[in-house]
Structures are given as structure tokens and as C-alpha cells.
């Protein structure tokens, strides 16, 4: 009986952990955007940050269904497991999926394949095309400020002009929890509800909520070859050169993007709790470890964002 | 320190900002905090080390520092090129006690804009003072802004203490000055710490060079200060701006509509979604809807399928009420008997953040909670002198000015005094033409003697 007395004094609901607070902030932002914009959409690649975003959206509108479509900018260089996961998730939640295809733009001659073969930077044009074609006025992204130095300067609601451009030197101040999403015709807003989450927060939350992810986030055996100090998967668009030896390794992915430039890390983390421990102990950032495109220059992300990238 | 195992689940969140004048070493201090709390991962550190070497960074005064810690936070190309911080940067690190969100605010251009922005969400602000220069007019202005915004905790870091040979008498003199200014302005409980951001003294690790300083290190202070919500919880009455009405009818989440009989039980579901702005709410509480004044009681607090008995600020939840009353986005649900009158005349402090100046007679938009209404600026009644904390006569406000104004609203709002309610006393002033944010507004008590009937809507 004495334990009941203790419980009455210290109400557990009053102890909000950092995850509770980050979740509450994200849900508040998602609801604000849905209330204030006509046609929002959520960028959904099947990657963990976008899966997390969709999970938060289902919580924000329970018991209603998520009141906006999802948009995937498809590089054509996908891991098949991720596309399967994307389609299954969209089906399960009864959502409409819009796809902007890099391949179609290349086939029409409106985009040129890069010399290095990576297609991540090519996503901007199909993204902006899908936004204007669908008249989306707000686009949710899973971008986080801890990912990159340029992203650290991003607002939660980020205004984009007619060309989708980000002007980092002329951003609206963001005060209290009052988000100003006013925009004029042709402009749109990118909304980043999980701006304040770190990679570790994301993984701890995925563990806490039991959120399903594409299987390649967990350690599995895969044929890989070494390039630029990263393990690349052998796949349709990612073939080893003659001098690159293919080996079988136990690996997992920390990000899942364009297969041709996303590297795997050697890992024994087969469960979400293993991953939380591994991320907490990691000495490399997720982009530094696994994204060839962000190694190009100190300002690679800033330059892409100014042009309208995610 | 283990950031891996179970206690992590109990980590709390603490938001703080930095403020200071140019060259006080803010970015270096932030870099030092991140570096010494092991928040910088190897690849980032490698990149910064390479850049530092390329630029011949050798530290100040023959210091052995190999890296320019400021490069850890200056995120834009122009910032790195010019060696200055242009925009607020957000940084993240944790210890085994807390997760930190840090707003690193620039000191030179538009310092009011950046300080107001950083301070609006901060549980604490660290104000930097150069030990060689002491408390400057700008320090005084920073402290005044923090007082105005009711930042709950203010810490003054006396930086570059190594450059005054770790002199206790220099530190004590600056400490006394800072406390005197804080006292004049009305800031209480200001902590003053001697640090060297460049060398690391008293930032994370206690310094061997300052045996005369017996207080906590900067990080220890940040780990133990109370958060805004901890301080205000229980003091402030329940306020809940309604963001939207959740009434799924035919559009139920698929897993619910397919579950046995669930579709039927949710057919008449109607709840009001929002974030608790202040205080707490429990099932059974009597509430009043503002501005309509209609009353009901709370019959359910829902969060994503979980029924809660109670919710506290700043939780995002949905409330179900006993009566079917007309409630829309922008209304505020308040604990019955805790609210005075809704007001159509607003008297407020405006922190003017736009290059477009404010003139009397301007038509603006006022965003308060989840509601946006039109406003007419009837009079600009004074400009705050941050050095004397007094008001001078003025008829308009320019970028970075802080002043008082009288605004007539197109409809009545449940506004409250910022001095009593930080979240419900704050609003944005928005330009109806281009949509830009013009000012941060803090509601003041109406003085009565500023009535001006020249403008009538």
C-alpha cells in the first residue's frame, strides 16, 4: 500500500523525457502545418527519418488517418527492400503516393547523368517539378539540424521561392512556438518537424515505439566491395570495377539513399537495441560514414539546399 | 559517462542560447562545449582540423590549440570565409544527465533579432563578457533583452580569463559589475563563471588555474539549472490553444476502421488537438472556451490511442469534452475561473525585427497561439532605452528597436500579460503583404493613460 502513496505524490506524467518533449514539439508542428496550409505533402523515401515522420503524423491525427499524401523522389537507384517497404507502408496507412522520377527526367533528356554516377544531387529538379505539378504548398521533410553544418542553420518552417531556393542569409526569425508559414503564390514552405532530433534520438525513439524499418538498417550478410573508404553493395547500379574485390560482410546501413553512393558499415547490430548502442558509441557522423556526396566539399549540402534540395 | 544504457530513457531536455558582443568568443565557447562533452565525432573533427591547418590557425598568444573551434559551428560558406557568425545555429549534445539544444546566436549584426530569437525558447542564456573588456554597454543591452523576455536562468561567462593571467581581482570586479547591472534591470540569481573557451578552463573541466573560483563549471551549471516548464509547472493555470478539431468520421486510420466494431465506436469521435501551453489538465476538470465563454468538462485526454488521466505543458494531446459546443482552431481552452476578459485592444512591447520600419497607422497581422487576426497600430507609445531601461517618446520603430505600442484587433483575443504567462502573452507581428515576421510581441498590462482614439476600425 505504501507504494501507492508514493505514486500519488510523484506523478509519472510530470517527468517528460527528452524524447517525450521532442515528440510533442514535432506533433505540434505537424498539426500547425496541416491546419494552416491547403496542400501539404510528406517526403517519404522509406528511410528511417521519413518513416519516423510518418509515425509522428499517425499519432498527431489519431484516430483519423494521415491527412496528406506522401511524395517520393525516386533516384532509380534504390535498394529493392526499401521500395518494397515504401509500398507496403503506404498501403497499410491508406495513403496516396506521388513519385517524382529522376530516371524519367534523364530519359527525356532534361537531366544529365553525372560523371560520378551519383543521383542524389539530381533529385532537386524532379522534387520541384512534383511540388509545382501537385501544387503542394507545404512539404514535410525529415531533415535534422545535427546532420550537417548548413542544416544547423535551417528553420523549422523554411520559405522557398518560385525556384525552390533557400536563402540562408534572409530567413524569418522563429520565435517561441509560433510558426509563421505565410507565403505568396508560387512560394512554398519546407517543414522540418524533427529539426531538433539527433541520430541517437531517432534510434531511441524507433526502439521505444517499436517502429518497423526496412531490413537493411539491421546487420545482415551482403556482397560488398570497398570504394572511397566505404563498403558498397553489389547491385544493378553499383558494380565493382575489375580491381575491386567482392567480399561477403556482415553490414548494415545508417542511411538509405542512392545505392550508388550510399555505403554500408560493418556491424553486428541485428536488433534495434543493438543499433542504439552502436550509434551511441559511434565516432563518425552518419553522413560522414556513409554518404559519398557529402564528402565532396565543406559546403556540399549548403549548395544543394540553396538550389532547392530537401 | 555512459550515454548508451538505460538511464538515457530518463534524460531531460534543456534549451540554452549564447549571447555576447563581437569577438567575445561565442563560437569558440560553443565549440569547446561540444568538443569537451565528446559531441564532436571523429570525421567532423578531422575536417575542422584540416581546415584549421590550411588557414594556419595556431591559437591566440602562442597557445598550443591546434584547431579553430569556431569552425565547428559556423555552418555557412560566407561565415567560414569571413570568420563571423551570420545566423543562429542550432547544436546538440548530451551528457548522462541531459540532452542539450543550443542556439548559438551571432553578436554583431542584428543582435537584438538574434538574441530575441534565441532567448524566446531558451531555459537559460549564457552571456559572454571578455575578461579584458569587462561589462560593456552591449552586455547591459543583452541582459535587458533577457529580462524583457523573462529568460528563467542567466549565466554570465567571463571569457578569456587566461588573457588576464587568471586574475581573481579582475574577475571579482567584473562579477560585481555584472551583478550590479543585473540588479538594476531586475534580473535575479545571475551566476558568473570565469572561463577560457580557447583553453577549456571551467567550461567542462574545472580549471587548475582558478583555485579561487569554487563554483561549478559552465556545463555543471547547465546540467542542474531548472527548465522553464519545471519552474512554471503548477504555477500557471491551464491554457490550451486549439490547433484543429479531430473528427475523422469516414476517414479513420485504416487499422482502426478494419478492427472489429472500432469503426462504429469512432463514428462520433470529436476531439480538440493542441499543445498544453501552460499548467495541467485532468479528466473531470471544468473548462471555459475562449473567446466564446462556453463551459464544459473534460471527459477524455487522448494521445495516439492512449487515454491519459492528466496532461501537462508542453504535451501535445487531444481533449474530448462533455458538451458539443462550437470550438474551432484559434480558440483557447482554459481552466474555468482562471481567465479575465478577452480583449480587442492590445498594449504590448514590440521587438522590431524587420528592416521595414513600423509607423503609426500600420495594418499588420497578429499571430497569437493558433489564431491570426488583423491589427491596426494605433500608436507607438515609447521606445525602450536598453541602457537606462526607461522609455523615450517616439512615433515609430526601426530594426532592432524595442518599444511599446497600442494595437486594435479585428476580433477579441484571449491575451494575457507576458509577465505572467510566457506562452500566452507572446505573439508575432506579420506583414500582410509579403508574410514576413516583423516583430516579436509581448503583451503588457494596459496602462490606461496611453489611450489614443485617433484610429477607429
TrEMBL record, chain B:
InterPro entries: CysN_GTP-bd, CysN_II, CysN_NoDQ_III, G_TR_CS, GTP-eEF1A_C, P-loop_NTPase, SO4_adenylTrfase_lsu, T_Tr_GTP-bd_dom
UniProt-recorded Gene Ontology molecular function terms: nucleotidyltransferase activity
Keywords linked to the UniProt accession: ATP-binding, GTP-binding, Nucleotide-binding, Nucleotidyltransferase, Transferase
CDD domains in UniProt: CysN_ATPS, CysN_NodQ_II, CysN_NoDQ_III
EC assignment: 2.7.7.4
Domain Tr-type G: 11-230
PROSITE patterns membership: G_TR_1 (PS00301), G_TR_2 (PS51722)
Source organism, top-level taxon: Bacteria
Transmembrane segments: none
NCBIfam families on file: CysN (TIGR02034)
The name this protein goes by in its record: sulfate adenylyltransferase
